[in-house]
TrEMBL record, chains A, B, C, D:
Residues 24-84 form the HTH tetR-type domain. It comes from the Bacteria. One of its GO terms (molecular function) is DNA binding. It holds the Pfam family TetR_N. Keywords: DNA-binding. This is HTH tetR-type domain-containing protein. The lineage of its organism: Bacteria, Pseudomonadati, Pseudomonadota, Alphaproteobacteria, Acetobacterales. Residues 47-66 bind DNA.
Amino acid sequence: MKRSAQSVPATKIKTTVEDPALVERRRAQLTQAAIACFSEHGYHSTTIRDVAERADVSIGLIYQYVGDKEDLLFMALQAVLDGYMRQIPPALEGITGPLHRFCVAVQAYSRVNGDSVDATVLAYRETKSLRKERRSAIMRKELETNELMAACVRDCIDAGLFEDIDVDLFVYQIVMFCHAWALKAWHFAPKMDVDTYVERGLRLMLRGVLTKAGAKWMRKLEASGVAPAAPEGGKKNAGHRRL
Amino acid sequence: MKRSAQSVPATKIKTTVEDPALVERRRAQLTQAAIACFSEHGYHSTTIRDVAERADVSIGLIYQYVGDKEDLLFMALQAVLDGYMRQIPPALEGITGPLHRFCVAVQAYSRVNGDSVDATVLAYRETKSLRKERRSAIMRKELETNELMAACVRDCIDAGLFEDIDVDLFVYQIVMFCHAWALKAWHFAPKMDVDTYVERGLRLMLRGVLTKAGAKWMRKLEASGVAPAAPEGGKKNAGHRRL
Amino acid sequence: MKRSAQSVPATKIKTTVEDPALVERRRAQLTQAAIACFSEHGYHSTTIRDVAERADVSIGLIYQYVGDKEDLLFMALQAVLDGYMRQIPPALEGITGPLHRFCVAVQAYSRVNGDSVDATVLAYRETKSLRKERRSAIMRKELETNELMAACVRDCIDAGLFEDIDVDLFVYQIVMFCHAWALKAWHFAPKMDVDTYVERGLRLMLRGVLTKAGAKWMRKLEASGVAPAAPEGGKKNAGHRRL
Amino acid sequence: MKRSAQSVPATKIKTTVEDPALVERRRAQLTQAAIACFSEHGYHSTTIRDVAERADVSIGLIYQYVGDKEDLLFMALQAVLDGYMRQIPPALEGITGPLHRFCVAVQAYSRVNGDSVDATVLAYRETKSLRKERRSAIMRKELETNELMAACVRDCIDAGLFEDIDVDLFVYQIVMFCHAWALKAWHFAPKMDVDTYVERGLRLMLRGVLTKAGAKWMRKLEASGVAPAAPEGGKKNAGHRRL
DNA sequence: TATGAATGAGGTTTCATTCAT
DNA sequence: AATGAATGAAACCTCATTCAT
């Protein structure tokens, strides 16, 4: 007696609730709870009851806003990626110098990443737990985010500040470097804070990429404190740490 | 919620079988099957029965060589990391030039990685599914592997071929870059092969690191074909910008 | 991570147990329990736990011999219909007179029916709870059973004992009449026993069907006590009008 | 497992609405929707939401006119049986000849049955899903309906048109024969239409029951076209309709 | 009177693990 | 040492029913 399964776009999520505003609010609530639970114990080890308790709702309510558990994962991963998309553009607002924009973009990226280490790790752990169409949707979102940074890189190249490098590869190198902070937090967190981490890493990576003109601009930016400055003192971890 | 079982080092695995040679053989067999299954479907979605069938043994037999399912995961992850440890030293055998050694080490690393993409992804997905002590054991193993490359880097610095960089950070940058091939295979695999990928990435990363002397050596190595050579004419990839 | 679904004949039932003899034995055990439970409370109101308890096995065991709850229903209904198929032929063994065979077949049929009133009712209640292919399999079985009686009817016609009637319709009339005993047990059971019921009904139905020759034979059979005899003096039922 | 609620006659249904006309209207609306849903998917597989949607009302509204889901089933089954009660008497209006009345009654009965095959099947499937008191109420209704036909039969006997048969048994035989059209629609519907079915069946059944006088009358009726006529042509389904 | 979001008990099913053979 | 049938806890999900609006 199964009811037939309409072929809906794989990214639409079932709900029995009619008020769209309510749906949005509840979904946000559930997504937050899901991110917290999944980050902590992983997707499979988290029960629906866990999420319900975390969100302070009943189990039944969840299934009024979501078709199944996987939907929660999908929503969670989308929200994580949306975080990047949402934070970078505002950070770039009003900034014009291409190199400056690039540095700010990386900084913004690394901050989102640093603020939600668990969520980033979650994305690496559980994206494969989604069925294919949704996995693709997530990947597409990742590429869109990368594109924000890629645009900055291209501007730098066009402005003669960067060598004519492989943009895609370079951007992914930066992204992976940022993610490494989250993925290898057990290694880095005790040694330094995110900003130090990014600062140092960026300097390493930029050295091979900046043109002479780019290097000159960089020094200016460093002087004004908006770009990775040469470490003024105790290299390894001046005493911060967190996580 | 049981934790410590102090008498037994957390990394020892229970068995009811007495012949150590047999234990070793069976465990190897199970580990291979586990890696295959876990890589394909993930740890949680794989059943003991799946592993038993893949290993062509009975379910009961598994529990004679293993205490529980998590042991299989532990064995699998260890084996994956051991792969790196096992492949790099032989590759370095007989090679003396520090820069040459560095390049070969990276190459060896990236090849293990390229040959077992699924296993690398597995490590990222499922390390957190281990209980803490074992997670630490896995991390320790990762650091040991990194140390193989770190030694090469330090030699290059000491030989004046590399600037005086943050070794740890640089090594992790390379490692992450290699892993990215596996983690983002969906993005890179359709565009190029591993060797091209590493070649290009390495060149990007080295430019900021080589001293003048290092750069000279590099050109020599490239000429002799053992190091990332300037692309003579892009293959799949003729249209991309590059360094 | 779903495993692909082979298209097996819709009537094959999944098992994880390898020994076919054991499978058969356990399935029989489960089928009996299922018939009992389903007859008593209906299919939907019966829980798997109910069946497990009735069969004195664990819940898990059931799922080693059966794919899902519907399989239990299918097995139950098949077993019910098989009952008819199994009982009628032996009853006809050695009997040669066409009219005699017809009477014995009906008698056998009505006895199976009378012995498993609940099961017959179950078939009427729950056949629709099966998915289509299986529903068809059950219907096919019903027709096969009817064919046993249809053959007798045809023989009677060929022997000139029955008029040239619509065999199919006549057989179904008899079958429905038998089933009515079960379906309307609340009405008939307090008034008479099955044999009386069939005897009377049969006489009603035969009167319109027997040829003169048939009627003569019938009287002989009645005299020898193998066919519905004229009631010599109603039992429970002395006051009722009768044929 | 709760049972009796003695104060309220088991057939009274709870409502929070005071206007009796409204109650009646709404209940009729709900009953129609319930019959449709239950016939289609069965009682247990139908959700209250299904019924609400079919009736185009809210879920909450249902519970203002009905105590629980079983009430809907009860109302539905009552309505189905009422259908018979409602259709037969008008059909008999003005007809005086006992045999004529009998034939018309059967015809009317079979027509109700033929027009609501699903509903008849529903009654067979789900009557047992009612608690006992209500089941009895339904059975009583069935007997009342039968009584309409029994009266005709008795008149025929008294008029010397029928032999002195067991009225109760004969009526049930006819009723079951009619129901068989619904219950075995999968078998009969492809072969003939209801009227043909009833016509043929009735002739079979009447032959054993009509007295000589009855038979004469019958021929008259057939001649005037109001009774089962001898088939004029192609037996099996001259090409009419089906289910 | 009408609505529909919220609840949570309870059902089906899976699967790690045990243990008799 | 090897097998695989048996177990049952625990997970996901449904849906009758309530109640605030």
